[in-house]
Amino acid sequence: MSDKVLSPVKTLAKANEANMYALTPFFHDWPRVKKYSGPDLSWCVTDIPFPWCNVAFNARLEPGRADRAIQAFADVGRKRNVPVCWWIGPETTPVDLSARLKAHGFVKRGDTTLMAIDLYAMNEDGPEAEDLAITQVEDRDALRLWCSVTAAGFAIPLWAEPFLFEWFSTAVGLRLPMQFYLGWVRGLPVATSLLFLAEGVAGLYFVATLPAARRQGIGFAITLAPLREARRMGFGMGVLQASKMGESVYRKMGFRQCSTMTSYIRMHEVF
């Protein structure tokens, strides 16, 4: 396959990664954040003991510097007593970075499928979810409820739920270009999603449905609603990082894989 054919896929993969990284505290005036920014690596560590708030990414490290860079990042997490996460993308170097991370106490969390969709060509004819109403989060009480449903949908431990709320309540205070969606069935909240507009694409995150409400078309609907809103605002491309559970739903909608990423997490005493 020629580079000309690969080019659009690589472009979508880069936009997907860039949107995801832009959601992290690294790119904003986050309170109490410590960060490093260089041509070979970017990372940030907050006081929030939630892995996605303490991340390293865009590693383009020379082999002779890689171990020192890994240790420096891990040490900041240890001093702040928070878990840290390292993302490995398709262009990450050195090639043996996974093995080096493991040697420094990082554990592979899993592989993530990067997917993209043309918002003007997506399949909008999904199963009809009976009695479903979708609203946007407008205040802190609704955001707290959104975090509770998200945590339950992703099986996030109860002790971590307040940190999820802290993360996003801070983000809302910074007026980031994001919008939270709640799905309701007969007055009960059952599903969530988050729309994040950055790097020229509409990023979709935290698509979750409570176990008792699954396989009823709710997941399709809570995914479609923010994508329609992004299209209304003039965005033409949507991106997300799919879980194995959600990937089949996204493919039915028209999402296609453009790359993969791998995450490694190092835990500390707080856990």
Explain this structure.
The protein has 271 residues and is of the alpha+beta class. The protein has 2 domains: 3-113 and 261-266, Aminopeptidase, CATH 3.40.630; 118-259, Aminopeptidase (3-Layer(aba) Sandwich). 36% of the residues lie in helices and 30% in strands. It has 7 helices and 11 strands. The radius of gyration is 19 Å and the shape is globular. The N and C termini lie far apart (46 Å). 40% of the residues are buried. Residues 1-6 have low confidence and may be disordered.
Q: Approximately how much helix is present in the residues?
A: 25-40%
Order of helices and strands: HEEEHEHEEHHEEEHEHE
Counted up, domains total 2
Give the mean pLDDT. 91
In quaternary terms, these chains amount to single chain
Counting helices, strands and paired strands, the structural category is alpha+beta
Strand portion, in percent? 25-35%
Level-1 CATH class name of the largest domain: Alpha Beta
Give a nutshell description of this structure.
The protein is built from 7 helices and 11 strands. By secondary structure, it is α+β, with helices and mostly antiparallel strands.
Topology:
Layout: H1 3-22, E1 34-38, E2 41-45, E3 55-57, H2 63-80, E4 84-88, H3 97-103, E5 107-118, E6 132-136, H4 140-153, H5 161-173, E7 178-185, E8 188-198, E9 201-209, H6 218-232, E10 237-242, H7 244-253, E11 256-266
Parallel strand pairs: 3-4, 9-10
Antiparallel strand pairs: 1-2, 2-3, 4-11, 5-10, 5-11, 6-7, 7-8, 8-9
Helix pairs in contact: 4-5, 6-7
